[in-house]
Give the backbone structure.
Amino acid sequence: MFTLKKNKITNVQTVVIITNYILAAGILTLPRTSVEAVKTPDAWISVLLGGVISILLGIIMVKLSQRFPEKTFYQYCPELLGKVFGTLLSCFLIVYFLTIAAFELRVLVEVTSYLLLEETPRWAITIPFLWIGVYLLAGGINSLARMFEIIFPITVFFFLLIIMMSFKIIEPDNLRPFLGAGILPIMKGVKSTIISFIGAEIMLLLVAFMEEPKKAVKLVMLGVAIPTIFALITVVMVIGALSVNGVFHQTWPTLELIRSYEIEGLIFERFESFLLVIWTMQIFSTFCITYFSSALGLNQLLKRESRLVLLVLPAIIYIISSIPKSIFEVFKLGDYIGKISIVFFTVIPLFLLLLAKWKVSSNDQSSSS
Amino acid sequence: MRRDGKKTPSSNPNFIGVLELDKALLQERLGKNSDVLFREFKLKKSNVSCLLIFLNGLCNRKTIDKDILPVLLEPFDLDDLELLKLTGKIDFIKKYLLPISEIKDTNSIENVTSKILTGDAALLIDGCENALLLGIKEEKTRSIEEPPSESVVRGPRLGFTESLSVNMGILRNSAENKDLIMLELPVGKRAKKSLVISYLNEIVNPRLLEEIKRRINKIDIDYVADSGYVEQLVEDNFLSPFPQVQSTERPDRVMAALMEGRVAILLDGSPFALIAPVTFSMLLQSPDDYYERWIPGTLVRNLRLMAAIISLLGPSLYISFISFHPGLIPTKLAMSIAGSREGVPFPAFIEALMMEISIEILREAGLRLPKPIGQAIGIVGGLIIGEAAVRAGIVSSIMIIVVALTAISSFAIPQYNAGIALRYLRFVSMIFAATLGLYGVTLFFLLLCSHLVRLESFGVPYTSPAVPFRFKDMKDFLIRAPIAMMQRRPSILETKDPKRKK
Amino acid sequence: MINLLRRKLKIALAVAMLFSLSGCWSSKEIEDLTFNVGIAIDKGEEPSEEKDFEMKGATYKKKDEITVTYQYVNIATTKPEAQGAGKKKYINISESGDSNHQMVRDLSLRQERPVTFLHTKVIVINSELLKQKSLKELLDYYLWDNELRPSCLVFVSNGPAKEVLESNTTEIIPAFRLSGMIDNSYRNIKILEPMSLSKLKGKFNSGESYLLQNIYSVDGEIKLSGAAIINGKNNLLLATINEDVLHGISLLKSKTTGGLIKATDETSGEVFIYEVEELTTKIIPIINKDKISFELDIHSTGRISESWMNLSKTPAFINDIEKLIELETEKIIKNAIKTIQKDLQVDVAGFGNQVRIKYPQLWQKVKNNWDEVFSEVPIHYSIKMEVTDFGYRDEN
């Protein structure tokens, strides 16, 4: 109809999608997981390093995807590895995305149940959420991208607002000594922080939809840098206010931080409501993009544009999200996802990139000889 | 003749040329109407018979009496006869005789019939196959005054009327503009009306124009009563609460939209012009913003945005805090709210629902009453009923405040149809809040955004210019940049000439 | 085809939404709740109503370890029309037992409206009770409950904690009064930085000893005076310190606001007041071959705000006053340090913290018995006070 190119996303949208994907459940638990691994106030350095490494991984994935213009991972993977392995890998990716969607959903349900709606049964919290996701996704990647463009500024605004207000309970001594225990604990911590930043893998799919794929490298850097900054500020604030010792045993340290202060006189004394609202929106966006990725994968594997897929997947996600029986199992699931993603997204894209380069050079040789 | 004795309309679509027969044809079609008058006479004291047919109510009788008939009844003089021999009867009358500004000749009986019924006069001449249509319709229209539903503090006090020609005239009058095109497309299968598309030729995106023409041509309905019908038949998504076509009575709004590269639709008989495509931000804008300077313009616009949010989410936030999360409001406030709600028999949701429905009923009632009483009833009704309800212990005073604030906020929205959308969406948000508290309100917001994001108006995303984010278009969204800085048209419309000429 | 599917989808959605209307499970109207604003924990002693219930047989299996008094706002008095009606604005209910959670739940056996801790502001604990029961155990339920906010403050009381939550006048709600008084901390150096539940969690995990504000109550009036020292290892009350010692410790912790130093002139015997404007305390650990000592550096500027003797602008005079003030300050600090270092052998002034920051490796070695190490370390003082002006007056 018009010129707004269907199924193409702008640069701003690309950045926003990456950012929204990475910012999710992790931000509530990151202070605890990083401090538990590092055991010193230097955990924020691990966070920073985690972000940097994630950017590097993202660049590898971008370079890989740029070799196959207009094709997503599901489409070019069989080209590189042959039908069997390629399909296997794609299936794996689909399952991966589904699991993340289920995980995020479950975390949302846990937190909402705990803090907002104690008596409400789990399904009443989940099902409307799923339906709205289905509705949004029926509009394709364009509506998804635009939705994220709406959610992103709201998140940034409120997040900065409430984090900055927690300044008044920060004690700088809690953040010292700087590098007191040396570099080693920080390195140990990176292993756990990087789990929160694996998100650049979405680039395996996004590059195919971009208006300007050439800019993908810059955009992925920006897209991962923004959540890194968010996470950095969060960890610094949380440790500063609660101290390293206060963060241990605290399931949701970020929430604890926001609940720890009251500002008399302002309209809202308590600000956790804001945090929960924007966090819900963030979980929604992460959920939608993973759900979309798996739906895309199924569609491209089966080589058809089936609307039915959109309806079946939420059911699967719901089932997966109901599997863990306790909050501990939920976190274990999160850990598994993280560990798998480290292995998968460091090794495989690099391997595929080298494979692609080798193939091209061998093609050149064979065609020139 | 059919067997049942009824006369059938002759199948011949054209005039025959013999006056008696043609008159019979027309009488078949129009004879039943008492307001259609047939005037026979002889042309210029000759032997040629003529027939003038016109509609009593719509024709300008003065013109007929003073301009048409005298000329046609005056005797020929020698020069006339010469010309008559040269040109033939129709041409002679049309080109040399009749002092009427609009004359068409036509062969088609259908055409003549419908034109007579819209106020043209038809002249049939014996021996001629064509008839002449004289455009002497008398415009019965009211004076041009400011539309009551869209008044501004500063700006022209002009409003469209029901007459299409007057409206077209007003638009042309806005400025001398050779690019302004008015294209007529008739609509309505049984009762035809004139519809005019207006656009600036050098600016508008040709694909947009094509799309609009296509959709209007697809309109397949008996009678288009008002531009509202056109709006509903042409819009992208009829299930959406949000209008995808803007309707306005103000010519300055239309002109501004045309200058941006949009297309306007005018319908005869309706003072409401339509503008397409439309984005969400346009619904919160008022011409005031542009006539005032940029700082007050920006601030007032943001105020309106706040008002829109309050009117949408006010009661639902109230319900979610009072019924679900009293821990999230300040302690002193919680205490005093709890105190004032002591003894109220209903939960917050029912209370809110009752009060909101009452306000909506009051509002509807206020529209039907004559102007001065309507205002008073609104205020009186609100205050007194509210007070009485609090005294009786049915609702709490906090509820009254929330409802009053919500109602006032919804009046701040300049576009009536946007206001309506927010009014009933408010009820949906209340339901979400009543079942799932603050989480429900968040879900509602997500649902609303999902819908807005999928909505398009003639190919333009509804949520422009916020999303997709184009920095160039931000100058007219949350802020209203100084006029000197607004040099480009909205890029989302992909106009032919993006730079506004200085 | 797609449209049909879409339509079905929308109908299904609508029906599904209807399900959720069948119950607003979590909704509890605000006027149906009782807002608890303060909790007082005393030694287990059954209040009279409970004794009566027990005599009639209305009791369950429990030990009377603690008695908890819950303070609610009397909602009837918060109505705008009911202001000044003369009824008390608060209600206190006491329960005794051995489990906090059980006692809270049992309140619903005695009351029409369920209690909610969403707005609880203060928790006061009897110091006598703290000598026997660990703070961590007493507060365990409250620390991890999802309703009670971590911003809630914890105090120790000299006498029965529930008397702190009483007041004579009908207008005052004692819990609010207490939390409001804490806001005065900028006016008086002897008010401690309040200890919130979230900060307490950190202290429990770190094993360091800490201070809690002590409150005295007489006849419905309360006074914030001194503090209680809680032993970081077992979270029991170690001792209470009086206002003078607290003054010294506050100075050590660099609490600037609200400080006044009262010095006496030798010749005339009159007093004058030095009002602190700026105060910086630096605790500098000095390590010499694994031996730790501290250098205490206090620098302050301020004014003479009140004097019962004549003042003069001459530099010599000012110098003299400054010396007097420094001496007085040194006395206060030495007194405080002696108390915590020698008498009580516990570091609540942050000396250890400085070692942790400056010498983290050394800290790892000493942190487990820091209190003993601390009791032996030498401390050197260097105090400098500067008088900037005499307020508005201009003496000659």
Summary: The interface with chain B takes residues 20-21, 23-24, 26-31, 33, 35, 37, 73, 75-80, 82, 116, 118-119, 121, 147, 149, 176 of chain C (CB under 8 Å). The mean pLDDT of chain C is 82.
